[in-house]
Amino acid sequence: MSLYKKCEQTPISLEVLQARWRLFGHVLRREPLIPANKAMACYFHDNAKRARVSELKKPSMNDFLNRLEGSGWLKHIAAVIDTSAFIARAISDGTSVLVHCSDGWDRTAQTCSLAGIMLDPYYRTMQGFQALIEKEWLGFGHKFTDRCGLLESVEVKETSPVFTQFLECVWQMMQQFPCAFQFNERFLLTIHDHIYSCQFGTFIGNCEKDRLDLRLSERTYSLWGYMSLHSTEYLNPLYKKTYEIKRPVIIPNPSPQALRYWRGMYNRFESGIHPRENVQDISSAAKDHSVSLEDHVLLLEKRVTQICKLLGKSEEAIQRKLQGHVSMDSIEGYLSGHIGDSSSASNNAVTPNYYNHKTGPFDLPEPVEMVTLTSKGSFDSVAQLEGSKGASLGGSMNHIKSDSESGFDEASSQLSRSGGVDELVGGVGGTGGGVLQSPGSDILTVEQLVAELKTVAIGWKSFRNVFSCSCASPFDHYVKKFHCWKCGQVFCVRCIARSIPLPGHYHRRPVPVCKPCYREVRRSPSTEFPLS
């Protein structure tokens, strides 16, 4: 330090805990699917005191708090956060910081990683957090095999929950800044579980050389690839992208009253102590439901616009209806007769019956030509409907209200100016069904309209009182439940592993659906036609 006259040395004492993990009835290497903390107790050696906090079954308030304080766990968490905040504040003020400890792979990795998360919003995203672990922990040689005790040959004094401390410090920051992180608590728990499960080669070995010698990139799979396939499970519904601009630097509060006991980690599998429903899962489901309905509304608005143009309505009148000034029930009658009972329609030609909503049935001044639809969806003739401002097709189709009652006045109606409808034709038969057609546009069938209305669930089933999936897989508190966007039912991740675009969505993005709905959508007729 004598060579650096303007440097200031700030020694900070951070202890590396020695921990001994005891498994009850399970050997971790033989039971890779059992998370490491499911049946373990952590003994923190602090002045010959042993505090067994997480395995207390029915502790009293004093017993639990005394043992938690005796373990010194939260004291160490606060010390790591405080040191990381010191580094982040110094760098934020423009001061260069050199962090160094005895080895450089335990406390250095903890503090530098947390300081990076505080300073750079990129490290608060899922991809950035993975890059941070690769750089600060895997790249700089944190001894995962020794610290986690993955081999029996590892000495007990080498084991220590250093990485668990880091994950908890991140969780404590997430509690204080819930909108700053793209990932949720389940993301941290999954990483922690698979460090001990050894199902993936990402955290095996003490350094990069060990992983190269073992050829893990060739013989094992990466944890990051698995998590990217299940990224929807780890999204934080409260995350705001604008938080990066409003608060690019976040400095957590390390005071005792700001820290919490991580019940989700240390008491994850104990029943009766968790909330009945996961708040983040409910928020995420509500957000997905809103996205689905908004996308469905966009498509319905396009369809309403198309049908109104076929009826000869002006653009101004259509926009007035879509903005909620007047109800669009003039098309409701036409579609309601086809939803759910499209196969019951007659194959014969349809004779229109016209109805005046004020005076009742009336006779047309001139006869109307019959309309016949062939099995291929083409028309033998086109009906020329004249003087039918308040008319509609009858038979298998309900009435369409008059212009005045449906909100279209004579001044805005193309029908009143032209004296007729732009070739409004309809019929049912074979596989073609009713068809709406206008000059210069592709054919839009009733079957396609019905498919669009049926393939989007308007109401989603509540997570409450759903304790198992249809495949009999139980739903624990930290097992994510998924909604099928088509039927709205609740399923586990295995039963909803497929995604497919729904005909009822405007943007046609692949969305998660259950297996029966996936097969049904795959068999549905193609709906590839213009949306405008």
From TrEMBL:
Binding, substrate: 101-107
Keyword list, A-Z: Hydrolase, Lipid metabolism, Membrane, Metal-binding, Zinc, Zinc-finger
Gene3D superfamilies with a match to the protein in the record: Zinc/RING finger domain, C3HC4 (zinc finger)
EC code: 3.1.3.95
GO biological process: phosphatidylinositol dephosphorylation
GO cellular component terms listed in the entry, alphabetical order: cytoplasm; membrane
Enzyme active site: 101
Annotated compartments: Membrane
Source taxon at top rank: Eukaryota
Chief site of localization: membrane
Residues in FYVE-type domain copies: 471-522
Annotated ranges, domain Myotubularin phosphatase: 1-266
Record InterPro entries: Myotubularin, Myotubularin-like_Pase_dom, Prot-tyrosine_phosphatase-like, Tyr_Pase_AS, Tyr_Pase_cat, Znf_FYVE, Znf_FYVE-rel, Znf_FYVE_PHD
GO molecular function: phosphatidylinositol-3,5-bisphosphate 3-phosphatase activity; phosphatidylinositol-3-phosphate phosphatase activity; zinc ion binding
Family: Belongs to the protein-tyrosine phosphatase family. Non-receptor class myotubularin subfamily.
Name the UniProt record assigns to this protein: phosphatidylinositol-3,5-bisphosphate 3-phosphatase
Lineage: Eukaryota, Metazoa, Spiralia, Lophotrochozoa, Mollusca
